Amino acid sequence: MQVNMLVNGVEVSDDIEPRLLLVHFLRENLRLTGTHWGCDTSNCGTCTVWMDGTPVKSCTVLAAMASGSEIMTVEGLATDGELDPVQQGFIEMHGLQCGFCTPGMMLSARWLLDHNPDPNEEQIREAISGQICRCTGYENIVRAVKWAAAHSQKSDTREEVGA
Amino acid sequence: MQVPAPFDYRRATSVGDAIALLQDYGPDSRVIAGGHSLLPMMRLRLARPEVLIDINHLTELDYIRVDGSFLKIGAMVRHVTLQTSHLAAEYYPIFAEAEAQIADPLVRNRGTVGGSLCQADPAEDLSAVFSALKANVVIAHRSGTRKVPISEFHTGPYTTILEADEILTEVEVPLRSNTGSAYEKVERRVGDWAIAAVGAMVRIEEGLVSEAGIGLTAVRADHFRAKEAEDSLVGRPPSTEAIAEAASLAATHCDPFADQRGPEDYKRHLVEELTKRALSRAMNRSLPEVH
Ligand SMILES: Cc1cc2nc3c(=O)[nH]c(=O)nc-3n(C[C@H](O)[C@H](O)[C@H](O)COP(=O)(O)OP(=O)(O)OC[C@H]3O[C@@H](n4cnc5c(N)ncnc54)[C@H](O)[C@@H]3O)c2cc1C
Ligand code: FES
Ligand code: FES
């Protein structure tokens, strides 16, 4: 069947089997391997992408169901070669070790900061609670998100009026 | 890598269209809502529908509204929408409380109210919530709709009274004055299914309990309900003794079994303790002066 979607602002279309999961469509058909795939039980959240502005587990959405939607993957976070503050925060605060969970963590973090520019620790932990990290013990992920909140030029410009 | 068995995909454009598609394709077709129960089952090949009918575009089923004497919740309302609905919370704080403990934020962004009830997982949380609230479900079929009390909807683990060509469209909850509600859940870790959970609704009129609802999940209670415990409360003044008696009845009349989430006696203990907590919070909410 034919699917069409806007992935990181680029129109894509392809002929796929209906059973293809969105995560595999992104990784294999589009070669966007930044989105990771880690479990078969919808538990780990490393496959998180935005679908029409909402973070979802792309292993639990059919590519067919996403047809007509706007998708953002981790590859869409940087703008014009400049890292998103969330990405920079993970570098500054050592928010990753093996990096396997990182794409999903960063997409949930960006969503949180877009909706709550100054989250407290509990809100950060809640926002990433659908994701599993085997390495960091989460401490540095939380610090990375806090760093991003403090250095969010992106949301600073967006939130300026209300802030 | 686990991949679902092959199937055809159709996108329904209306409730009528979804029912017509279910009829065209027969019993091997299924609707898919959030897909957060069905797709994991299909990946494990525990489910192998031949045709999937996608109902995600039926915005007509995505509403929470007050209509007459009911709070009406469309089947395609996502968990996150119910969790953050001021309207739902205004009448029944149990919704926000239960939803905050269902799965994780990512799952709640996709999973739906209708999908949760139709999945009929024995540890499903909303079944206990709607059971406590004595809700009705509205079911659409080829020639109209029928309305059924939630206590008749589930027929066992993973089974409901839905016919192959029927769709759940709405859950309606009666609006009640002087009523409080609360949810108590114990889980192994954040985002997990319940070890045991209890939902309570209590209405107090002229100093006496006039209506009580107690929903239980994950402990094999008949229809997710602690009927004997509910009955024991009605007509009595709200008191610690009445609560203790109801909690003990709830713990006796469920049938938990030992699994990786814990032994039977522990689960029974949880039912008793959580019933106490849920009932007393529900009572406090219906009568702010009672503590
Ligand atoms: C990691 C994880 C953790 C979870 N934790 C919890 C938890 O703690 N508590 C809890 O209660 N749930 C939990 N869930 C389940 C979650 O709430 C699901 O979203 C829900 O059970 C199913 O909703 P859905 O919309 O995804 O349904 P789907 O998966 O789309 O459908 C489920 C079933 O219902 C049928 N169906 C769906 N909608 C309709 C309809 N309108 N009419 C007729 N049939 C319909 C489908 O055909 C299918 O058989 C969890 C899920 C995951 C993946
Ligand atoms: S791959 Fe683990 S939740 Fe999607
Ligand atoms: S950094 Fe290794 S899983 Fe998170």
Give a written overview of the molecule.
The complex is a heterodimer of chains A (163) and B (291). Chain A is an alpha+beta fold. Chain A has two domains: 2-74, Beta-grasp domain (Ubiquitin-like (UB roll), Roll), CATH 3.10.20.30; 85-153, DNA polymerase, domain 1. In chain A, 37% of the residues lie in helices and 14% in strands. Chain A is built from seven helices and five strands. Chain A has helices spanning 22-29, 63-66, 85-92, 102-115, 121-127, 139-150, 153-159, and strands at residues 2-7, 10-15, 48-51, 54-57, 70-72. Chain A has a five-stranded mixed beta sheet. In chain A, strand 3 (48-51) and strand 4 (54-57) form a beta hairpin. The model of chain A is unreliable at 155-163 (pLDDT under 50). Chain B is of the alpha+beta class and 291 residues long. Chain B folds into three domains: 8-54, Uridine Diphospho-n-acetylenolpyruvylglucosamine Reductase, domain 2, CATH 3.30.43.10; 62-174, Uridine Diphospho-n-acetylenolpyruvylglucosamine Reductase, domain 3 (2-Layer Sandwich); 179-283, Enolase-like, domain 1 (2-Layer Sandwich). Chain B is 33% helix and 26% strand. Chain B has helices spanning 15-25, 38-43, 79-83, 86-91, 94-99, 105-108, 113-119, 125-132, 227-233, 240-253, 264-286, and strands at residues 8-11, 29-32, 51-54, 64-67, 70-74, 136-141, 144-149, 154-156, 159-160, 167-174, 179-187, 194-205, 208-217. A five-stranded antiparallel beta sheet of chain B has the order 4-5-10-6-7, sandwiched between helices. In chain B, a hairpin with a 2-residue loop joins strand 12 (194-205) and strand 13 (208-217). The longest helix of chain B has 23 residues, at 264-286. Chain B is globular, with a radius of gyration of 19 Å. Classes of the chains: A alpha+beta (163), B alpha+beta (291). Chain A binds chain B through residues 1, 17-19, 21, 40-43, 45, 48, 54-57, 60-62, 64-65, 108, 126-127, 129-131, and chain B through 1-9, 32, 35-36, 39-40, 42-44, 52, 54, 56, 103-107, 109-110, 190-191. Flavin-adenine dinucleotide binds next to strand 2, helix 2, helix 7, helix 8 and strand 10 of chain B.
